[in-house]
Please model this.
Amino acid sequence: MNRQQIEALLDGIPDPEIPVVSIRELGMLRDIRVNGDEVEIVITPTYSGCPAMEQIEADIRAALAAHPVRTRITRQLAPAWSTDWIGPEAREKLRRYGIAPPQGAAATEQVIHFALRSAPKKGAARADLTTPEGQNHSVICPHCGSTHTSESSHFGSTACKSLWRCLDCREPFDYFKPY
Ligand SMILES: [Zn+2]
Model:
């Protein structure tokens, strides 16, 4: 098997949490190294300690199981995955699925997100969210395209998303936080 064939097989593996996008489209599939009958798949987790990684590795092994190759999976942690790696086609799929794709965020926003994850103290989180930086960052509604939106909860259906509501069309939606 060559690299292209393996890439085509792996292209069908969806993200366990957001099945409309593949792990390749999310930028998690970093490299495919073919060395004789051994195939090394290099993946970078979207969030460290993400439980979905076990599922993704099992899916990769299953996709290659019917082929005469030995599969080795390497988790590459550096450089760390960033939402900047999400390709344009995946951003469009997220939008159509009703999830606002990550927008270019100010460094301060990212610092707040890091702080929230590493120190989940409720009081501190609330104080951070009322900072002007948080207020200025308007997320585009995936349903109607309005920027007239507000955050209802900093944690949505998963830790990587926050819950927002559109003030124009009134629809709630998940926002894939920049990381
Ligand atoms: Zn809307």
User: Anything to note?
Assistant: The longest strand covers residues 29-35. The radius of gyration is 18 Å. Residues 141, 143-144, 146, 166, 168-169, 171 surround zinc ion (CB under 6 Å).
